[in-house]
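Lab notebook, bench 4. Still working through the backlog of constructs that have no structural model yet. Next entry is a single chain of 291 residues. Request: give me the structure tokens for it.
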Amino acid sequence: MPTAALSDFNAMPSVGGPLLGDAEFQFLRDFVYKHCGIALGEQKRQLVQGRLLRRLRALELKDFSSYCELLRKDPHGELGELASVISTNVTSFFREMHHYDLLIDELLPRWLEQKKNGGRLRIWSAGCSTGEEPYALAMVLAEALERAGSKVDARILATDLSPQALEQAHAGTYPLDRMGGVSDERRRRWFLRGEGRYEGYACVHSRLRELVTIQPLNLLHEWPMRGPFDAIFCRNVVIYFDKPTKQRLFERYAGLVEPGGYLFLGHSESMHGLSDAFELVGRTVYRRRVA
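Model written out:
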């Protein structure tokens, strides 16, 4: 699932393009809800039409009926592209810094001490978008490992549904104007300045790549990993899910987080009334209850 859910900007359809009929829009609403967990209201019709016109042109399809037929024949083959089209990946390095402060000041030192005799440390960035979140996590993890002189087996899993977002996450190359959340010290330490055709870009250090595994994943479908995770970051992903979808997702997270482990949500998200498996311990920070 892309990191940010459905965009709210007013996308107007191109003049002269095919119209999104009632039957096609209802099919797309059902399809997106089933496979992405996003409920598209009637007020999103113009946005969907405007966004999908570009996809129709790329596929050389004449109308939305043809696109719906493509989804019927190969739902999984086109799902990632559809999710990318109707969603907006809004993310940045060290967004919601208080989460990283908690990791740096308390959680990582504790985990590394607990696991120094052979344990594993695992963090999952669920909805990693274009990679800024997992690479920011990798920076603080690498720094914590150095401070502790630790050789703990530590890894970050980064997953998303969007093929375009994952392509950039794999590349690890970002425009300099998107580096605002990274301190000068960390820029010097963890990034290489691009040259030639990469002028104006920064590329993540190989050490960060070693810590991060990037994989495609739909949060609503089967999960290949078994955990356990010390922490899961699922920020700005569930805000547009309906209540039953959120409840199912949080239940699944509870099955993968260590008792006493942590789940981090976005600033507009809450687990209130949705799960008894976690307790609120900070600003959008939840801890898995210990039985």
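Notes after review: Strands lie at 120-126, 153-160, 173-175, 191-193, 201-204, 212-216, 229-234, 257-265, 278-282, 285-288. DSSP finds ten helices and ten strands in the chain. Flag for follow-up if needed.
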